[in-house]
């Protein structure tokens, strides 16, 4: 059963679990089994359209329930994301525009501008997983890591950043990370494709 949009109590991080452990087809549920987000992905066909991931949460209508759509384009074309979460209006962006690089050409770290106009950073940390921080303050906002009992768990802390944006950007980051991983045993706890440092200078956007 789906719950209402996530609201995090001040001072108390919320844990959400990916069930099953697949960023393309999963439900983000709380420890007591309440579902807050669902991700479903259509399967692309050899000569058909690209696969599309739809991220949804509870709403009064089907249209309002869609948080974002990510179109995983093929044949070298860049994937795009459609959502009205970023600034309240319907937008279509290339993923590399939403989640951009700074510095290192081969870094997996990505940055994005939140709904509060702050810059946030997703960084892959060895032994933990993806960690999201406010780039200017260094404050941790969320982390997605492996739980000893369940699959991937998100720990989302109270902040001015819209929780929808956290989920959208994480789903994209984790899906693309898994696409790069050839050893299936490395999926649960990333250990070899993390960034050794914070990245170099600021060169704005760039290839995703």
Note down, in words, how this protein is organized:
The protein is built from three helices and twelve strands. With 208 residues, the chain is mainly β. Mean pLDDT is 80; it is low at 183-208.
Give the arrangement of secondary structure elements:
Elements (H helix, E strand, L loop, with lengths): L13 E6 L6 E4 L5 E7 L9 E6 L5 H4 E7 L7 E4 L7 E4 H4 L11 E4 L5 E7 L3 E6 L5 E7 L5 E5 L6 H18 L28
Helix percent band: 10-25%
Spatial gap, N to C terminus: 35 Å
**Low-confidence spans:** 183-208
Q: Label the structural class.
A: mainly beta
- Average pLDDT level: 80
Number-wise, the strands total: 12
**Number of helical stretches of at least 4 residues:** 3
Spatial ordering of strands, largest sheet: 7-6-5-4-3-2-1-12-11-10-9-8
Radius of gyration equals 16 Å
Beta-strand portion reads 25-35%
Overall shape: globular
What is the chain-wise order of helices and strands? EEEEHEEEHEEEEEH
Largest sheet: 12 strands, antiparallel
Which key features would you list for this structure?
mainly beta, 12-stranded antiparallel β-sheet, 208 residues, 3 helices, disordered C terminus, 12% helix, single chain
